[in-house]
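Anyone else keep sequences and structure tokens together like this?

Example one:
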Amino acid sequence: MAERSDATLRITMLPRDTNAHGTIFGGVILSHIDLAGGIAASRQASRNFVTRAMRAVEFIAPVYVGDVVSFYAAVLRRGTTSIAIKVSDEAEPGKEPRQRVKVTEAEVVYVAVDDAGKPAPI
């Protein structure tokens, strides 16, 4: 069961982040998901973490230029060298900042590594 979700990142989407359809490119959202999950993993241990997998990524609603997107992270599972983080995010539309729309959800697995890049205990 996941721990309580903490807000780990908040980003305003800019015109440079749009795709050919005028919405925010999915890869930009994935990058921020990875960053937010990595922050959450590093809060669990003073280790370097690398991304092992992104699972169950679901794009629920589009994100637009000017939207403020907040990324929330919670620990799902913790192993000896790895940790699974659930990252969900919601957008506050630039034109309606008091509304929030859930836009993406993913599970990201990180592995703790030592200075040589080998898996290390958390």
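And example two:
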Amino acid sequence: MECLNYTPSEASKAIGISERTLWTLTKAGKIPHKKIGNRTYYPVNAIKAWNEAEAIEWRINNGQSK
């Protein structure tokens, strides 16, 4: 069965940031996430799309082409 949501640990590893940075982005509402009970999950497709959008923005801001 395909995984639909990352745990915080999985999400931070998938996008190459620390869990602390992930929590900072989560609390600021800058990264897609959802709460189920007391747990926070990160939808796999949304995290992949967010990561790609961030990479494109970084390239544009740093004068690089797509």
